[in-house]
Amino acid sequence: MSRTRLSTVVFDAPDAHELAGFYRRLLGYEVRAEEPDWVLIGPPFGEVALAFETEPDYTPPVWPAGPGDQRMMLHLDIEVDDLAEETVRAVEQGARLAVHQPQEDVRVLFDPAGHPFCLWVDTRTRRRRGQ
């Protein structure tokens, strides 16, 4: 049986380089490849990469979506150790905090192109460690 693995998640954006720069700074990723309308970034030691493709007709999703709104197709969940600190850092890098926050241990933000993403803390692990 041949091996199958997820290698890359691709985001459409009005400016691939701008959005790649945001996630590169946020996640500490490195640029692996780039072209005029496409950028691939990833962690220094393999794992799943993120790619960004310029789409001139890109329409950002609405979250939470209402009837007829452009819906998000997926979002990233990014685990952090300090939710408050990393939320501030994400906003400093260009993210926008969503008005609707559905959970205490999760912060929903929008990247510069309007894609929702979540910062979250694993409170179950912290409770087990006594934190």
Question: Quick summary of this structure?
Answer:
Pfam families: Glyoxalase_6. The chain has helices spanning 16-27, 83-92, 123-129; strands spanning 8-13, 30-35, 38-42, 49-54, 76-79, 96-97, 106-110, 116-120.
Give an overview of the whole structure.
The chain is of the alpha/beta class and 131 residues long. It has 2 domains: 1-57, 2,3-Dihydroxybiphenyl 1,2-Dioxygenase, domain 1, CATH 3.10.180; 59-131, 2,3-Dihydroxybiphenyl 1,2-Dioxygenase, domain 1 (Roll). The protein contains 3 helices and 8 strands, in the order E-H-E-E-E-E-H-E-E-E-H. It has helices spanning 16-27, 83-92, 123-129; strands spanning 8-13, 30-35, 38-42, 49-54, 76-79, 96-97, 106-110, 116-120. The strands form 2 sheets. A 4-stranded mixed sheet has the order 1-4-3-2, covered by helices on one side. It has a 4-stranded mixed sheet with strand order 5-8-7-6, with helices on one face. InterPro entries: Glyas_Bleomycin-R_OHBP_Dase, Glyoxalase_6, VOC_core. Residues 5-126 form the VOC domain. It comes from Streptomyces populi.
